[in-house]
Amino acid sequence: MKNTRLLLPMLLIVLALAVYFRGALSEGYYYLTSALVKGGEVEGRAAASQGSKWAEAGLSQFASGLRSPVGLAHAGDGSGRLFVVEKAGRIKILKDGKVQEGSFLDIESRVGSRGSEQGLLGLAFHPKFSENGRFFVNYTDLDGDTIVSEFGLTGNSDRADAGSEKVLIKIEQPASNHNGGEIQFGPDGYLYIGMGDGGSAGDPWGNAQNLNSLLGKILRLDVDGEKPYAIPADNPFKGKSGARPEIWAYGLRNPWRFSFDSETGDMYIADVGQNLWEEVDFQPGGSKGGEDYGWNYTEGLHAYEMPDGYDTSGITFPIFEYGREDGCSVTGGYVYRGKEFPSLAGTYLFTDFCTGKLWGLRKKDGGGWEWAMLFNTGLQPSSFGEGPDGSVYILDYTTGRIFKVTAEK
Ligand SMILES: [Ca+2]
Ligand SMILES: [Ca+2]
């Protein structure tokens, strides 16, 4: 009885506090609008189901001694070298898991890395690197703006020529967060660039849905045509007025990591959520591009700042989402295609920076998706990397260690 009588006054107090803090805290404001006003699953959308019969997976330590590692790539040149991106502005070489003396590239003096989401963020080797020595990086400069640029080698293949920088594209950043950072060559030989919505919270400038802005997008550039880059003839918005021709897909908040399945060419985009939902988006190989992944009208499978009566049929919804009980910032990984652990074949591996939970996501026989939480890494995983043999590595940001994902065979 007593509890029931107290319920109404308590609710009123909570409501009054909510209204008070709504104005005071911008994050709180977005949480409230999202959770109370515009929440609820978008009708008729279902993500992956929980699967059974998954391989027992684990980790095996592979390397240590890196400083705030945020990326790992290989050069596709048969050397077996792995290249680790350190946030402050260096790229280190690993040979057989050993960190080599010196840096492959050191551009720390050009990289602004004070913000937690700023720094040297991405690395991609040209598909013909073994012939032309060209590679590309994505970083925030001393003004906080995004630079994607090209470098070449010195006479020593373990040393890049820091003086060879050619800026491919510069994109102004209105706030220090949400800079994206991923760059990957697709199976079509074009360079894909992940761009965040510019930052702050909730995409206050409406960049992700604005086709006249390069923010909140995946871009697709041809680095082998005219300089500094050419627009591929089949980019979806090429020749359309009011749209930037570089855009491949839009409606993204902060696609920190995306990757291509080395066997199918499918693209997996892990888009970091606002206050409620982290998501994984899927784009099938052979897609013509132009997908709208929903932000900031939607977050995960839920409405966010959706205009009244908006038709959601044009939105490509995620294949997987998770809420705050499982993490706070999704870290996208790779589809495992290595030979060493056949039980992981075809599984997309990804994790969360805040909880270190490692998930697997895979296509179900007969269509649809299934997922499993494979295990808790106990790490603060900033990124994954794929080796030339298809091995998948996971990078622990705080301790500077790199682990190989393993499984029962
Ligand atoms: Ca930004
Ligand atoms: Ca989305």
Query: Number of folding domains?
Result: 1
Q: Look at the structure and name the CATH superfamily.
A: TolB, C-terminal domain
Question: Could you report the average pLDDT, rounded to the nearest whole number?
Answer: 90
Helical residue percent band: under 10%
Ions, cofactors and other ligands present here are:
calcium ion
End-to-end distance, in Å?
A: 59 Å
Residue ranges: pLDDT <50 for 5 or more in a row? 18-44
**Which strands sit side by side, in order, in the main sheet?**
1-25-24-23-22
CATH class: Mainly Beta
CATH structural fold name:
Neuraminidase
Gyration radius, in Å: 22 Å
Which structural class should the secondary elements be placed in? mainly beta
Strand content bin: 25-35%
Determine the number of helices (DSSP H or I, runs of at least 4 residues). 3
Q: Largest beta sheet, briefly?
A: 5 strands, mixed
Q: What does the overall shape look like?
A: globular
